[in-house]
């Protein structure tokens, strides 16, 4: 399957990543573990679909962030619609990974990262492509996220990270373990072109 086929299969629109199989998997895992009153951050929210699911199906305080201004606008519109319907609300913040957030701020951090391996000679350069491309290894965004996320986790907090077999599942887990996380599978599904796993990471 070509890169363009993968992009099309995974819900591409003009500038904002739209919900696909990976989004649903992450949302289901999150709803299963988020408790009433938890402070939840979804990094790279895209359209805000996952954040909306968590906000509407739990009593958590949800913050959604994205570096893409188009995604932030679309996520805010989704949050406003959710509030109008009386089904919840979530805050949207423009942010690069977890940079603006304070230490120990969140009980649960969710991330469906860009992870499609991309030839460095053919690197993508628009917002949608940035939402998909994980660099040559597929881990160009995942590893900096793992390096930084521990700072914003509250004691006993956890990370739910979507990992694709295209990215190198064991390589992601090795990096997380090197940072002091323990890892377990929260949920996993296989498709013709990849296996998707939501990994639950906690401090060892």
What does this 3D model show about the protein?
The protein is 34% helix and 25% strand. It is an alpha/beta fold. A seven-stranded mixed beta sheet has the order 3-2-1-4-5-7-6, with helices on both faces. Strand 1 (39-43), helix 3 and strand 2 form a beta-alpha-beta unit.
Could you provide a short overview of the structure?
The protein is α/β, with parallel strands linked by helices and 204 residues long.
Shape: globular
Gyration radius, in Å: 16 Å
Low-confidence stretches: 1-7
β-sheet strand percentage: 25-35%
Question: What structural category do the secondary elements indicate?
Answer: alpha/beta
- Tally of helical runs: 7
Q: How many domains comprise the coordinates?
A: 1
The CATH superfamily is identified as: Vaccinia Virus protein VP39
Percent helix among the residues?
Answer: 25-40%
Mean pLDDT: 90
As laid out across the biggest beta sheet, the strand order is 3-2-1-4-5-7-6
Q: SSE string, helix = H, strand = E?
A: HHEHEHEEHHEHEE
Straight-line distance between termini? 38 Å
The major pleated sheet works out as:
7 strands, mixed
What multimeric state do the chains show?
single chain
Write the CATH fold name: Rossmann fold
